[in-house]
């Protein structure tokens, strides 16, 4: 009976997932095709006819078997970003004592779901005669989309049913893609590391959703004890932290123009280093003179977010260090002081503290980008000025630095508004009984939807091992070698 | 006494290993040398004289210090594959409650053993005047060989002695290399991701061996409780799963022609995404409405196997999604339904379920490759037709698509037959008393060959910490700071 | 009170860290700037005027937007090295039962601290008109510096306060940088994998420091039980081991000349494979016929150190196998026999056995490099002789092979002397009461400085879950589905 009831809830999840997957296959079949470089030469020609003169030139000048460099140029950084999504976010969220299976598996599912749906949404926004092309950069941008959804996932981690998570991802990807599309194509926002469109959007979409989904249980005095970590879960969580920290330079430079990539790598590298140091300092001052693993696991990463919009600009190495330090302080302050205010006063329950790791540092990144843009000049960027700031190119509108700064801020405003509104609406949708909200006793508990490992008691095992003795009898050499049974069972 | 007995068994293992290692050093000394690109220019010339005209041209046209691109072109994907072998397979197998040391360490040993022996076997099959050359692709293909042996390892995991594992690896590498050599050079099979020669061979070699090594203990009602996982071991196992899943596009495209690599990456990426979604759906339907970690850990990877033989062909993105979905369903069905039949009826005990993850999806891959080859045409592949299907090139035999399809199936048949027969023979060899079969009580137990950590009881530690108090006396500032002893001991 | 006392110690640590971070920002601001390739074209020109004719030529011949290849050529290997520092060293050290938080977090902090301070030290030694340039190779060399400090960290792991660790890193980076600078620029030592300047220096600096910091507690009979590992911590530790093992070829070839990289990769790859096999053999012979995880975790890596100075030379594949085997035997002997002598007789307590993994294999590497240099000849290296051995180039001093061999040994001697003396002095400095030496009862204990997770008892949790039942009442579908409370609590 219980099993049936359970089954009822999860079967609905499976059916919805199946419907989505079929939809994806159909849409890929109708609209998706390989990009020129991944398609055979012949098909390439037919493509070029339908595409811009520039590409036509490019492709005709291409010898039939000229090696394609997309893999060589993008693949290593793509794989770093891929690791950030699946190992980074996945393990970062395993700190919850009883929710490790769910954190890791649902993270895995949502990312695999989003890289399909995100590719489709972006493709549908960039159709050329009813077709969109897929190449290495498609995979990269789809992983970026996954990052945004996984950030929101962190805000509601442990509090939704699998079905609710999937519906959340489906809606969020659609809104995210449109918001980013407007911000990049119309506002011509510069956001190489996605701090505005990925981090700010993901964080505030998730927080708005979490606010609407607030439940009376969260206000119970000892509710957060359900979130408690253990030494083992903290070590797993650090796997996620460290991979995110190490590969963040790839995240911030993968989409940069080739000659700006090195600067983006250098800036992010030093920014993260000083952010890590800042976190240890703040942990001592803000956390009763102790080093807090929660801060190490999260605040050390804030630097990557804070420099995300300006990584490829001339912030100079010392500028990167200052940004990283500031981000670390801001993030630690968020965890130690602001978190409680959000939860108690504003009734926003933020499981992973995404406001501190992605939200506020993302806003900081946007503000920094406005300042850096405002000071852009020929004397500073030389002949690369229009490479870094295409919108300032006279042939391309010729914006003034100050205008670009205002556009950066307007992109932040648009993203905040879109995220908060669409997040709130998504929250109301997720409150539908139909979507199987989680019963209170199953909050932060893998038992809700996962098959848990059966326990084997010491006696059971002793019984089995004893039975097995029989088989050892005829093996003289070994029967002597058998450790005592208790020895076998102590570990 | 017990120790002596134990020692006797393991010393034999060490001696055999030593003999093999000395043999490898001697064979490398006699036959192995650096490839042209890794050797000094002077040596290069002497090489070119003895090698084909093409290479001669290549090398003479090479300036003395012209940078060598082998590292740049192959190294990143090689390292991904390397991670799949050592972290991927290694951690995937740590789910066994009491066999973590062995899974990880023996996986490590076998892979390190095989990359030497595999290099030798392949080299001996490709001798030019009694020498074989070593370069980046040698390392890649040696890692592929390791994959095959580690798959077979998964079928017998927990049930053999270290000595038996090593003998298994030694025999299997030899047979694997010959089978692959015949399949590629004579049947001209297309198998860019090694689904036929690596996955099918490894899986069915292991299963045939496991059948011959079947022991009465396996039929004990509660035998499989020895295999039980825990929450912690499952989180370790997921490290392996996710790294395998993320880097599989490298596995399927590393050996592809440079201009086909991007397509291989794209196909594998989307194939795995839909396979992951399919696994969650099937877990609910096949596993009492619950999400099963065993399925997440394994079935999500089946897509990489299923598209392995056709990753660089025109399966189209939607085709990749369909293949991935099918592979996920097939693999889940294997774990939930076919596994029991194999174990109960056919007495094939498959510890890691390699039949479901590598065996059946590999067969599926071969069938798909036959279909895709059968539909190959100028109109679809344009001028790249002979690049993708070299055997269809008139200068190279000029096979018809249908013929190529039949050759794909014949390669599958040959591989299945070779794997089953050689696996069974290996099984009979491993039954020799001389090879120290594992006594029953030590099945799935690290205690058999590993030094286990000593336990420290609460009292022991309290005693030590108390002794240490003494040293703190003269440190006034700190003696105040000492946490209560119990506090120290609770964690 | 206790908290205050504690705070006092750690606040000092935070303040010192803050002072260093501010210092770094100021020094970067004054002396640091982007390298040509990462700076805008205009700035580039101004640079070239002030730099060598060679660079001038290079830069003027560079089109304004010509893509910069530094990222493509160095980034993948840099990221591998990055993983070795943060995941590799970090997790390798988590084997200590109660020191996992500290091992991982302090490793993280020290590395982030050193990549800033190391960049500065190296920069200050290479100033061009009071400025130093930062590019991809800067990041690589800074990570190499981190490796050296993390090796010393391993020798004193668990025995110092965070403040002492930071002071150690600050001093060691300064001495390391000068020693390496002299060795490379004046002695023209060849050490592509840093075995002499990184591994030997780090190991013996740490051991000398550990000797001076020896405390009576270490001689307590059961003292080392505080170091005991558990099955879980050993599996975490293996994450570090395997990533170090896999990516070591990147460590040994990243700084090699482009056309020598492939040889460096091949040599390191095979050297590590045979070292891994040797470790299993020696474990059986040296460790009572059992496989020891401590040996697997450490000795398998000795091959990477032993071939570090000659990885890009003509040692031949079989030579690499022999070096690896020898390194494995040496390292295992160190752990099983020499360690005790060091600790009992010489009062050198080596927590991670850095003498066995980095010290002795590093000395071996230097000796091997002397031998390989002594046999360098035109007939063996052809026209690449001066590429591999620049100091033998007549235009560059024209050293004889035998001379180069002597210089290799003199570099070893200088490094040993510098490391031992500066390590000992550092040890005396760290004995200052001001630096908060660790009270005895807090040795090897996270409790000293880390906030430990609060425990939740079975009853506490049961109480919370019961309260939550209330919220489930109105959800009919689910209340049926609720697992029994005990079920919830068993896992």
TrEMBL record, chains A, B, C:
One of its GO terms (molecular function) is ammonium channel activity. Keywords: Membrane, Transmembrane, Transmembrane helix. It comes from Ramazzottius varieornatus (Water bear). Gene3D superfamilies: Ammonium transporter AmtB like domains (1.10.3430.10). Pfam families: Ammonium_transp. GO terms for cellular component: plasma membrane. It is found in: Membrane. The lineage of its organism: Eukaryota, Metazoa, Ecdysozoa, Tardigrada, Eutardigrada. The chain crosses the membrane at residues 12-31, 74-92, 99-119, 139-158, 165-184, 196-214, 235-254, 266-286, 298-315, 321-342, 363-386, 406-430. The gene is RvY_18307-1. This is Ammonium transporter AmtB-like domain-containing protein. GO terms for biological process: ammonium homeostasis. It is a multi-pass membrane protein. Residues 69-433 form the Ammonium transporter AmtB-like domain. PANTHER family: AMMONIUM TRANSPORTER, RH50, ISOFORM D. Belongs to the ammonium transporter (TC 2.A.49) family. Rh subfamily.
